[in-house]
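Retry 2 of 3 after timeout on previous attempt. Resubmitting structure tokens to design endpoint.
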């Protein structure tokens, strides 16, 4: 996810004019008849006595929730150790569209944190495909469906991945405001950037899976404990950008950009995508807290104007900005508590709130100043 956040950073850093600044996010429910159109094959060895054709059909064949509920696939069994056995078990319930995806996923699984591995016990299967965009969790099948673009490391591999844009990107172009988020951790290599993106994507989708597994096992979603989403100014913005809600778009004109920023700053929702619903709020809390714990990552949220061709976003003055929304003192401990409940294995956070400052950036500050970048042209 996030995941054109990296695109924004590269754009800010490298290009004289930068028009693209979109953020891909997942969807919780697959909208189409078919979950995946490309035929998929198993990445690993099938568990004993499983009907692989039925597994494939239940993961990919038909998006009718009633049919998929009848499948009732078992959760992926993740042994406690060693990592090689854990990885083999996960690959045995992973479907892929192209062979190269197997080694990319395997090498990620071998190097990722044990918490992520443990969260894979909340899914019933994993599908990676060249035609999935955006990635999503689908509760009727219990599977996560991942955009193969997150795994591609070479030009050849990228060449097999769909070039279709996320259909929601057009929503961003239809309003004058731009709300975007930049990670504070800057990867040093393309490999590290890929790793962080994939870690964030999995933390998010697996948080959904563990939220729904809690409901299946205990009759209650973890996200049931989260606060009601206030229908404030930033709620309208999120509903338009990520969910295409036309009436929300119309309501946006009632608010100034400063009011939108302030409503976000003062609300209990930790990420603009969390305004979609409680499921997404839970997933964003978990994603933010794990990225902070694992990588020291914080997030900068900025509200400015939507750049036109040849304009450089870096020089734009902001209407509102904030670093560390999820670190606000009244939200931080609650966020950690629910994150611990979403991760199946026991673990303790090592970082503290002192490592995670919350800063509000004054209106009028240029984007490059907030992000600690040089301006795009010499000051006159
Ligand atoms: Zn989500």
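Retry 2 succeeded. Sequence:
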């Amino acid at each position: 996810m996030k995941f054109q956040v990296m695109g924004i950073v590269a754009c800010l850093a490298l290009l004289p004019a930068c028009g693209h600044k979109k953020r891909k996010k997942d969807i919780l429910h697959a909208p189409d008849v078919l979950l995946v159109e490309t035929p998929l094959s198993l990445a690993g060895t099938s568990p004993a006595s499983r009907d692989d054709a039925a597994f494939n059909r239940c993961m990919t064949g038909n998006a009718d929730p009633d049919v998929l509920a009848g499948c009732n696939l078992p959760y992926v069994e993740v042994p406690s150790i060693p990592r090689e056995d854990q990885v083999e078990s996960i690959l045995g319930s992973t479907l892929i569209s192209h062979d190269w995806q197997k080694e990319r996923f395997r090498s990620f699984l071998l190097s990722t944190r044990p918490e992520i591995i443990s969260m894979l016990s909340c899914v019933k299967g994993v599908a990676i495909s060249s035609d999935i965009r955006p990635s999503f969790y689908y509760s009727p099948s219990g599977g996560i469906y991942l955009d193969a673009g997150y795994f591609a490391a070479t030009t050849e591999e990228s060449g097999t991945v769909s070039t279709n844009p996320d259909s929601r990107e057009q929503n961003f172009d239809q309003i004058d405001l731009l709300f975007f988020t930049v990670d504070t951790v800057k990867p040093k290599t393309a490999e590290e950037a890929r790793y962080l993106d994939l870690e964030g994507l999995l933390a998010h989708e697996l948080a959904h899976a563990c939220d729904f597994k809690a409901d299946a096992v205990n009759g209650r979603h973890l996200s049931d404990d989260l606060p009601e989403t206030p229908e404030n100014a930033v709620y309208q913005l999120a509903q338009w950008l990520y969910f295409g809600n036309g009436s929300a778009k119309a309501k946006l004109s009632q608010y100034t950009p400063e009011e939108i920023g302030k409503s976000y700053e003062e609300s209990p929702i930790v990420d603009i995508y969390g305004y979609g619903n409680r499921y997404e709020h839970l997933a964003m809390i978990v994603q933010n807290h794990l990225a902070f714990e694992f990588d020291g990552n914080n997030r900068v949220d900025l509200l400015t104007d939507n750049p036109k061709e040849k304009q450089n976003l870096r020089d734009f003055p902001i209407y509102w900005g904030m670093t560390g929304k999820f670190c606000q003192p009244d939200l931080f401990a609650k966020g950690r508590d629910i994150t611990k409940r979403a991760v199946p294995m026991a673990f303790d956070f090592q970082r503290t709130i002192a490592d995670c400052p919350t800063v509000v950036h004054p209106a009028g500050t240029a984007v490059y100043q907030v992000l600690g970048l040089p301006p795009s042209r010499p000051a006159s």
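Attempt log closed. The radius of gyration is 20 Å.
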